[in-house]
Amino acid sequence: MGSPDTSNANCRVGESLVSLARWEAAAAQCCVPLAISHEREAHFSGSIQSATIADVCISRIAGGRHVAEHDVASVSRTDGDYILASLQLQGAGKLIQDGRCASVEHHDLVLFDSRRPFRWELSEPFDQICIRFPMSLVTYRIPLRDTFVAHTISGTKGLGMLVAQHLITLCAERDRLAGSPCAPQISTTAADMVGGLLAEWMQVRPGPRTNLHSMHLQQLRQFIANNLRHPDLNADMAAAALGLSARYLHRLVQQDETTIGRMILVARLEHCAQWLSLKCYANCSIEQIAGTWGFASAAHFSRAFRAHYMKTPREYRLIHQSTAS
After folding, report:
1. Less crowded by CB within 10 Å, the N or C end of the chain?
2. What residues contact 134, with CB distance under 8 A and at least 6 apart?
3. Domains of the chain and any CATH numbers
4. SS3 state at 69
5. Roughly what angle, to the nearest 10 degrees, separates helices 235-242 and 211-226?
6. Crossing angle of helices 313-323/298-309, nearest 10°?
7. How many CB atoms lie within 10 A of CB 325?
8. What is the DSSP letter of 257?
9. CB under 8 Å to 157, separation ≥6 — which residues?
10. What is the pLDDT of residues 96-138, one digit of tens each?
C-alpha cells in the first residue's frame, strides 16, 4: 500500500460503519500507510474526507477510539517522504514518535514524520484535520532537525492560532481549492505557514550548527552505525576513535535533544526490528538477535523494545512475519 495518486484529487470514505481494511486503504491514500487496531474487529465507525491541492493533501478525519500505527513495515510501503501536521478539533489523543509522546486536545497541533515509525492513540471519539506535505516543500524553507516531531503546539495563541485557523479554512474549502488554477500557490502558502510555525518554535532551541559541527555529527553517526554490534559501544569509545572529547560529543547531540546512549539504543532497536520482521532470520531466537546487535541483557532489550515499539519483540515478530509476502 503506497502513497496516494495525486491525479485523483478526492478520496472519500463516509459510511457510518466501514471495515478496518477500507479505513486503512483510505488513510494510506490521504495520509500514510497505517495499521489500525480497534476493540471491535468487524466494523469501525468513522469518516475521511480529503482533497489534494497541488502537492499537499488535506483531510478531515473523524472516528471512534482506535490505535493507528505507522510501523516499520508501513514506513517501507510509504512512497515518498512527508511531514504531517494534525489539528485536533474534538477528542483527546496521543502521538508517539522517536520516544516522545505528545498529548493533544481541542485545537492542539502536532507534527510527525513519515520516514520513521509513529503511533496515534485516540482514546475517545475524535475529529481532526490532517495535512500532508512533501518533505522538500517544508525543508526548502527551513532546515529541520528530527526533534520537531511529537511536540504539542497550542493552536489557540500566537502563530499557532493563525496556522490552526488557516488549516480550518483550507479544509472547509478543500474541494473548490483542489481544482483551482492557483492550487500550487495555495499549497505553497500552507507550507510557508507551517514552516514559519516550526521556525518560531525552534527559536528557543540552540542555534544552527557550523559545517564543522555537522561533519563531526555525521562522523559520530557513522561510527555508531559501524560498531553497533560491540556491546561496550559508548561515548568514550566514539570520542577516542574520532579524536574528539566525549564532552564535546555530548554537547553536539544535545542540539537534537538526545544523548549518545539514546542514539545507540534506537539504532540497535531498529536493526533488531528489521531482523524480527524478516523470514530469513526466523530460525534465530530473539535473544540471539538482541545479542547480535549489542544488547548484553535480554531483559533490557525486551523492556527497551516494548517502550519504543509498543509491542514485545515476540508480538512484533508474529505480526510482521505473518504479513510478510
Report:
1. C
2. 55, 56, 80, 81, 82, 83
3. 10-202 (2.60.120.10), 211-323 (1.10.10.60)
4. strand
5. 120
6. 60
7. 3
8. T
9. none
10. 998 889 999 999 999 999 988 999 999 899 999 999 999 888 8
